[in-house]
């Protein structure tokens, strides 16, 4: 019943290690986690209230985890565990590049570009993709991440490697955490996922869509603190 919460606990261990080892990254981690909650919450409510004959839902479109107070089913995919996931994932993705490559974020300002273009580009790309293909909602998250990251790279070419390597690092950490989760709940694919609604492709016991999400999320969120504050890494 508490599988999702156990997965969150595994993520918290990774987040806590980064948070306590790198004191200089604590503010970016907290900021990025909170910012991700705001962005996805706004996107969820906007998407949920669009008139449509099909019931709106985010997570139940491809998996149906048990959530505290059954909020996930009542809201269509927004539960306490989802908020915790957003906060922890945002913080982890933001810190990995600096942690592994021993970089530090400087407060030296860079350029005078429109910072919100990454999210505007992400939203527009998602809307177009949705109208063309109308696939499962997990692909909307992947599309938003990809186009948002693309906008960052176009505006801040100095963040190219930060974005790509940040995406790969988050993918590796995400897969590792999934592997740990699999050891605890080896039957999670059968009990939590609806693979018939996605590609159905599974690598190492993990749905292909989870790889896509992790890679693109890391590409967008690894450089997001520097992008929004116009900072650089040294």
How would you portray this structure in words?
By secondary structure, the chain is mainly α. The protein is 66% helix and 3% strand. It has helices at 3-21, 26-48, 71-75, 80-100, 117-133, 137-155, 160-184, 188-192, 208-221, 224-229, and strands at residues 105-106, 202-203, 206-207, 232-233. It has a two-stranded antiparallel sheet with strand order 1-4. Helix 2 (26-48) crosses helix 4 and helix 7 packs across helix 9. The protein is globular and about 50 Å long.
* Helicity level: 55-70%
Averaged pLDDT: 84
Spatial order of strands in the largest sheet? 1-4
Total DSSP helices:
10
Shape descriptor reads: globular
SS elements, strand count: 4
- Taking all Cα atoms into account, the compactness measure Rg is 17 Å
What portion of residues belong to β-strands? under 5%
Q: Give the low-pLDDT segments.
A: 53-60
Largest β sheet strand count, sense and barrel closure: 2 strands, antiparallel
For the record, give the distance between the C-alpha atoms at the N and C termini, rounded to a whole number. 45 Å
What is the subunit organization of this protein? single chain
Order of helices and strands: HHHHEHHHHEEHHE
Short description:
This protein is mainly alpha-helical. The chain is built from 10 helices and 4 strands.
Features of the shown structure:
two-stranded antiparallel ribbon, 234 residues, mainly alpha
List the helices and strands and how they pair.
Elements: H1 3-21, H2 26-48, H3 71-75, H4 80-100, E1 105-106, H5 117-133, H6 137-155, H7 160-184, H8 188-192, E2 202-203, E3 206-207, H9 208-221, H10 224-229, E4 232-233
